[in-house]
Amino acid sequence: MSFHLVVGHGPAGAATARLLAERGHEVRVVTRSGGTAAPGVEHVVLDARDARALTEAARGAAAIHSCAAPPLPQWGTQWPALARSLCTAAETSGAVLVMLGNLYGYGPVTGPMTEDLPLAATGTKGRARAAAWQHALALHEAGRIRAVEVRASDFFGPGVTTGGHLAARAVPRLLGGRAVTVLGDPDAPHSWTYLPDVARALAEVASEPGAWGRAWHVPTAPARSARHMAELITTEANAEPATVRRLSPALLNAAGLFSPLLRELREVRYQFEGPFVMDCSAYEAAFTARATPVTEQITATVTWWRERLRRP
């Protein structure tokens, strides 16, 4: 077994650290706020933009799993420093840099997204995310580091709370049969990446030299609309069918005056206005991990939210 450094302890970082520890690896998690130690998992407090501190934390690591991201309003200003620090730590330690990415970098596209699409985003967040990977890839191609990026669509599942579109703003209401409001067209096909599948992909590519030097899409179930996902959740929960409404652009703009998160979502609204479908066939042809069946995703998600909502 080996030592892995996980940067960030949001939903993806927590799931990845837990999976690696369950597989017998030694895991160190670095965050700015710290955390509670668990079997096989150590928590260290540091700012990942501090290259010297991050390099010291990564000493002896087989892989650095980059699961951290600045707050959405600061992506344009904070991603460059974070990306440089991650690459410095990877170069000095010799660890493989495994970056968790998303689909922002492609910008608006027509048709299913594949990894060979150009990173043509025009928005601040999309450009920042693309630049972080391009910096790492350039160093990989120069032989200075070993890097790979794993890209996911919108997270869904146990552990996904305030940051998910099918999470805290929707699932508790659906469990009670109450109406929900979603960003964009509720009937547009959309790829929802199940959080445990993200962790499995990050762990798998870290140990596969053939994966390094390019980006891969996390195995993700076939696209389903927000309305269909809501129906699956209420059916699993034996709840009353819930009305799924569209949040109009005008209301989004108005809400953005008071909510920083909603204000930032205006840039990526296109992802919900029409089909937003991720093709993960390249990963499935090369590796063993597969998307969890949707029925299992829904059952686990409903169970997790019910337990969470019962807590004092």
Automatic annotation (TrEMBL):
InterPro entries: Epimerase_deHydtase (IPR001509), NAD(P)-bd_dom_sf (IPR036291). It comes from the Bacteria. Residues 5-208 form the NAD-dependent epimerase/dehydratase domain. Pfam families: Epimerase. This is NAD-dependent epimerase/dehydratase family protein. It comes from Streptomyces sp. Y1.
